[in-house]
């Protein structure tokens, strides 16, 4: 996935979860933040950020903030729509007979339904933008919707689907995602239940630049239930 027009700016502040103030070409510009998560460890005054200009009509802001350089020097893509877009690009190369996004199952819309031969797949995609000491964590804010989707994947597995939760890691150098139970313990509990029920936990490391993000590989969690420390790093 590549952005057509990227411009660098300096982060000033985030008045609310939807907008940020940035320093751009000698002026202060209000921009849309394409991530409603907290991103507190990323969006620090003075840090480098990158903007894209969609050019859509009727917008209140001219630019979208899509990437940021963390204090460690690593560039993070924080576009919440990017995870599904790069996943679709990856899935289209995997030889599935059918790939359908936004598939209705039960009372939820699961990100991807696929078919190959006689096997049916349901994958829910989660973009990871929180990292501490080389480990990714999800979520960076409570997500009741995320817990609901895990419950639906458990049910899907019980009726014959190959169900998985797929973490797209939106930064270089991170290969594992753990549940951020310090922020949302219920998500970690649901993920444990899903593992026990046979739902796969997949990791998709990415190559990230200011104007692009691309999945580089897929790995599968091979660990046991309850492996995680009781107080994982988080953004609280």
Structural Rg? 18 Å
Helix fraction, binned, reads: 10-25%
CATH topology of the largest domain: Trna Endonuclease, Chain: A, domain 1
Run of helices and strands: EEEEEEHEEEEEHEEHEEE
Give the domain tally.
2
Indicate the low-confidence ranges by residue numbers: 224-236
- The total of helices stands at 3
What is the first-to-last residue Cα distance?
31 Å
Mean pLDDT: 92
Quick rundown:
The protein is an alpha+beta fold and 236 residues long.
Walk me through this protein's architecture.
The chain is α+β, with helices and mostly antiparallel strands. It has 2 domains: 6-77, OB fold (Dihydrolipoamide Acetyltransferase, E2P) (Beta Barrel); 82-220, Trna Endonuclease, Chain: A, domain 1, CATH 3.40.1350.60. The protein is 16% helix and 42% strand. The protein is built from 3 helices and 16 strands. Strands 7, 8, 9, 12, 14, 15 and 16 form a 7-stranded mixed sheet that branches. It has a 5-stranded mixed β-barrel with strand order 1-2-3-5-4. The chain has a 3-stranded mixed sheet with strand order 10-11-13. Helix 2 packs parallel to helix 3.
